[in-house]
Amino acid sequence: MGIESEVFGDALPVAERYAAFLAEAGVERGLIGPREVDRLWERHLINCAVVAEAIEPKASVVDIGSGAGLPGIVLAIVRPDLSVTLLEPLLRRTTFLNECVDLLELPNVEVRRARAEEVAKEFSMDVATARAVAPLERLAKWALPLLRPGGELLALKGERAAVELEEAQPVLKRFGVRTAELLQVGRGKVDPPTTLVRVVAERMPRHAKGSRKKRSS
């Protein structure tokens, strides 16, 4: 448990309870595949926890399409200074997330059952996170309206990160983002390092607001 202890520190017992819940209830309810149980720590928990390296202290975070709570719950565990909203439209998943929050006693987490476009006018967050939700060109349309000017989208991506960033350029240009870049976090802790697409938001143009389409189920 060397790397796990290094990454989670004093929060390791909470992370262990979360891992156990994922391995049992998460698998039973179809939120985690059975084959993922043996690699929960490296592939999921640590992979998500190192995203905290890219987040400023005391930030407000919205995790879009939170699913089983990856990375939102992991970030709330490793960074109790963060205020985390888990945004998820499906009832069975929000039920699971609420059970996680109660089990792990996470006072810095709120679960919200909604689609991103339904709450855009309510949110002005510092950071939006997402993992395995959608290609960047679609994800940006959902995430950027949730951010304050200067807020950041941190999208966990795999081998196609650079391709997705290139394909999303027309959408990012329309939203007038300040910067968009690839970033790697977790070097020496997870192999390969976690790849993020970091997009820094600007105020959203009116024509971009009118272009949002409803997310499909």
UniProtKB/TrEMBL annotation:
Q: Does the keyword Mitochondrion apply?
A: no
Q: What is its EC number?
A: 2.1.1.-
Alphabetical list of InterPro entries matching this protein: rRNA_ssu_MeTfrase_G, SAM-dependent_MTases_sf
GO biological process entries: methylation
Q: Where in or outside the cell?
A: Cytoplasm
Positions annotated to bind S-adenosyl-L-methionine: G65, L70, A116, E117, R131
Entry's SUPFAM superfamilies?
A: S-adenosyl-L-methionine-dependent methyltransferases
Keyword field: Cytoplasm, Methyltransferase, rRNA processing, S-adenosyl-L-methionine, Transferase
- Which GO molecular function entries does the Swiss-Prot or TrEMBL record give? methyltransferase activity
**What is this protein for, i.e. what is its function?**
Specifically methylates the N7 position of a guanine in 16S rRNA.
Q: Which family does it belong to?
A: Belongs to the methyltransferase superfamily. RNA methyltransferase RsmG family.
Protein name as catalogued: Ribosomal RNA small subunit methyltransferase G
UniProt organism field: Actinomadura rugatobispora
The record's gene field reads rsmG
